[in-house]
Amino acid sequence: MMNIENILNKGTSILKASKIANPYLDSEILLSESINRDKKHIILNPKEILENKQLNNFNSLIERRRKGEPIAYLINKKEFWKNEFYVNENVLIPRPDTELIVDQVLKIYSKNSQLQILDIGTGSGCILLSILKERTSFYGTGIDISKKSINVSKFNANRLKLDNRVKFYNSDVDNFKIGKYDLIVSNPPYIELLSLKYLEKDVVNFEPKLALSGGFDGFSKIRKVISKASTLIKKNGKLILEIGFKQRNKVKEILKKEGFYINRTLKDYGNNDRCIISTKI
Ligand SMILES: C[S@@+](CC[C@H](N)C(=O)[O-])C[C@H]1O[C@@H](n2cnc3c(N)ncnc32)[C@H](O)[C@@H]1O
């Protein structure tokens, strides 16, 4: 018979043998998911005997983790800004660096402004929904080329009780024509072809290529987003973009050509250029 302590040790050693970075922590998270108890319960009850069904759940999650599948996909959730988002293999796992966009929007726009926001490449909906949750007079539209990701963003809108202020469309940014926006946000796919294979295995083997690949030079989606944004944005509206750490100067050039004034660029937690704020003039 296996108790909590035994099974945690077993999970940890399997993950360690497969060179997973945080074997004990991951085992705790996966056990907590398998037995539907929080981490505190696990720490306080090392001798609790587990049922077969719980052990089977745990073993199959450990097996998936051993092969590199990210924790967020195994437990179908990820914290972003102030909320928990449902995620699955059809959406990019929200990254802490992307919270920069939310942070900037909240700094720029006061509580009582009435804004129409467009999020291009919305994925899980994490950026748009976080903003709407904080600003009750804002309205949002999210688009994504992936139909399956739109199902996820709709599900998250519903869970966060935001359905009445948000619309999601399954559309390629190239074909989208609806509305005029005060603010456009986007975290487009921006990784260049040659760098894709050097990403961590967890990322490249499991996250959607559509969410990562920025084409041959990494700029193909950014270009589309900027040129489309320039037609969908109101005069004096703002475009806030996440970019790759070597893309700042080129993106600034593209923005200027499309009629945007560059307000500022911001660095992420790792001190890399990560976000550009611009205004349509
Ligand atoms: C880097 S992910 C960002 C997801 C989410 N906004 C986030 O920050 O976590 C980029 C998203 O853009 C979508 N996408 C890629 N090409 C697109 C296109 N041509 N039109 C619309 N969306 C696109 C992908 O499906 C993916 O969901």
Strand content: 15-25%
Number of helices: 13
- Sheet bearing the most strands, described? 7 strands, mixed
Structural class: alpha/beta
How many domains? The number is 2
Give an account of the 3D structure.
The protein is an alpha/beta fold and 281 residues long. It folds into 2 domains: 64 residues; 201 residues, 3-Layer(aba) Sandwich (Rossmann fold), CATH 3.40.50. It contains 13 helices and 9 strands. The strands form 2 sheets. Strands 5-4-3-6-7-9-8 form a 7-stranded mixed sheet, with helices on both faces. Helix 6 runs parallel beside helix 7. The chain is elongated. The N and C termini lie far apart (69 Å). The site of S-adenosylmethionine (SAM) has 23 residues, from helix 7, strand 4, helix 11 and helix 12. The site of S-adenosylmethionine has 23 residues, from helix 7, strand 4, helix 11 and helix 12.
Helix/strand layout:
Layout: H1 4-17, H2 23-35, H3 39-44, H4 52-66, H5 71-75, E1 78-80, E2 83-85, H6 99-108, E3 116-120, H7 126-134, E4 139-144, H8 147-159, E5 166-170, E6 181-186, H9 193-196, H10 201-206, H11 209-212, H12 220-232, E7 233-242, H13 248-257, E8 260-267, E9 273-280
Parallel strand pairs: 3-4, 3-6, 4-5, 6-7
Antiparallel strand pairs: 1-2, 7-9, 8-9
Bound molecules: S-adenosylmethionine.
